[in-house]
Amino acid sequence: MRAVLFLAATLSPPPLALMRRYILSKISHRLYKTRGVRWGLSGGGGKTFVSRRETLSRVCCGVGHSDDIEDAEELAAFKASLDSNDYCTQLERKVLDLRFGLLDGQKRDTARVAEILQLSETRVHQLTREASRKIPIMGSDGPVNITYEDSDILSISKPPGVRSQPIHRFKGDSLVQRLVRLQGSAPLVVHRLDMQTSGVMLFAKHPKAAQSLVNQFQTRLVKKQYLLLTKGIPNATHFTVDVGIGQHPHEKVKRMATPDGLPACTHFEVLASNTKENWLRINNHNEFSESPGYPCGFQEFSKTFPKEGVSLLLASPESGRTHQIRLHSAYMGLPILGDDLYGPEGPWIKRLALHAHTISFSHPKHYVLPPTPTKKNREKRIGEEGMEEFRGERNMILVAEMPDDMLQACGWLGLDVPESPQEKFSI
Description:
By secondary structure, this protein is of the alpha+beta class. Helix content is 33%, strand content 16%. The strands form two sheets. Strands 1, 2, 3, 4, 5, 6, 9, 10, 11 and 12 form a ten-stranded mixed beta sheet that branches. Strands 7-8 form a two-stranded antiparallel sheet.
């Protein structure tokens, strides 16, 4: 009898709590291994093939999905890309044909497609995303200013007005698509800049380097500095803004500085400033010149010169919230010139006067990733102080010089631009 009871206890299923703990541990381990490369892009021009495993781990979320295809031109380009490549399974192609009316011109929502194919809506949505992610990223023509490159990373000086990454994989223009045309494959994206922001951008060339860089961004080892032109002159030469960033209650695109938002902190330093009185005194001789070099006549330009004065600031954000520098600067009464959301627009510059000047980090070859989470090192892996044990030293500084339009604006506004720091490489 005892032997029977022992055998029954041995063969009985494990307690639910133990099964739950085992499943959660496996899930957390898998997420930990893949989270470092989930922001990357995969694919390339021509016949570059992207496997399903790669699409799930390396394609950036929100990039190249077909769910947001609206106009006829995008739909035609999408269909042409599908017809020219045989990467989708039969079921995925059926979903796309029904969803976007590629055969009969009749678009259907996810629920209708699920009803026709006898699938769940979740499964239809998943198939749509997976199929569209298999489309290779189409290259685009455009200049690329590569400031540094080795076997692991790539640095580019991003011009203003160009997206960091594509909206659709099959059309458009972005830095990633320009690199596809130049190098034949897309790099892995580890961070982004707003479309109108210029400056240094860092890419990874393989998943291991991407995981290293993303981990440094997550643990705030990476330090970035921005140059910005603002309306107004601050009272102090150094000041810090520690105010949260939250979603705007009425406008989807905008954010707002609020104590209830996500934590955000930015340090500012005044590099140069100029009052309107001083500008008029120095430039008064240009009043009778027909072409003083301003974007408009002297009289017109003097009217648009901010009465509060102008400043050239250096911003060092500790966090990376959306529109953080723009909001924190405006929060202090120093809106960025050319900011169409939070600041004044004028003849000084035709875009947001914000430039990513430097980025410092530890090269992936010198950075040791944290170990796989266990009960012993869990607090060290998650806690900010514990991360010091695994961090590398910031041994690289990449610099993007101030672009011509900002230099010209500084000249018009009478702001002296200091010399840039020297690039530092230690690999």
